[in-house]
Amino acid sequence: MKRIALFAAGLMLSGGPAVWAASATASSVASNGGSSSASAQAVGHADATAHAGATRGGQAVADSVAIGDGNGYAASDAVAAADRGLAISNSRADARGWYGGSALATSESMAGAMGGVAISNSDALASGTLGGQARSQSYSTSLTRGGVARSDSSAVSEGYWGGSARSVSDSLADTVGGRVASRVVALSGARYHASAEANGRGVSVSGFSRTRPVEVRATSQAQRFGSSRSNAVAVQVRR
């Protein structure tokens, strides 16, 4: 598992996105009968990176989409690394800001497999209008060695007028020969002068021949002058 982490970290460090300029970076590396593909797309005040690496007959697919509109900024990163296994990483970030409002969306997805199947999906959406502020952060990590691991993370945040909203979603699935699934959804909404915050985190870790699904959902809403906050955490570890 350490080999996957180091391999994926090296891929991420090989290309760093710019802070303000819209850019897209994709890299694909395959060796010893492996196959890999990477694609990245960035539209207006956005950065997208996709890195895929495969070896010893493994398959790696990385896809990243970041769309920033107006004065909103979006960043999306997807990393897939496979050693004799299959790794699929999907990441998407969408941010919008109008009339002085600001929005920030960050989506990060990483999938690593050694002889197994790892699927990671991350999605983040944030919108800010007028003086409103919105921030959405989504992180998904899926790691497996001879098993099946799936991680899904989604964060949605909205802010209108003078309100502010923030949502954070973090999902982790890790297994050795077993089957794990982690799904985290965080929603947050704010209108007028209100503020809202939603945080969700899920961790699923299992050993050989074990199945461990985890689902986390955090929802927070505030309208007019109110404020709201919600936190949800689920952790399941079995070796």
What is shown here, in short?
This protein has 239 residues and is mainly β.
| Overall spatial form | flat
Kindly state the percentage of residues in helix.
Answer: under 10%
Overall average pLDDT: 81
Number of helices: 1
Count of spatially separate domains: 1
Rounded radius of gyration (Å) = 18 Å
Strand content: over 45%
DSSP strand count = 15
- Arrangement of strands in the largest sheet: 1-3-5-7-9-11-13-15
Ends apart, CA distance between termini: 15 Å
Oligomer state of the chains in this structure: single chain
H/E element sequence? HEEEEEEEEEEEEEEE
Q: Explain this structure to me?
A:
This protein is mainly beta. It has one domain (2-238). It is built from one helix and 15 strands. It has one helix at 2-13; strands at residues 23-31, 35-43, 46-55, 59-70, 73-83, 86-98, 102-114, 117-129, 133-145, 148-159, 164-176, 179-190, 195-206, 211-222, 227-238. The strands form two sheets. It has an eight-stranded parallel sheet, covered by helices on one side. A seven-stranded parallel sheet has the order 2-4-6-8-10-12-14, with no helix packed on it. The protein is flat, with a radius of gyration of 18 Å. Residues 1-7 and 11-19 have low confidence and may be disordered.
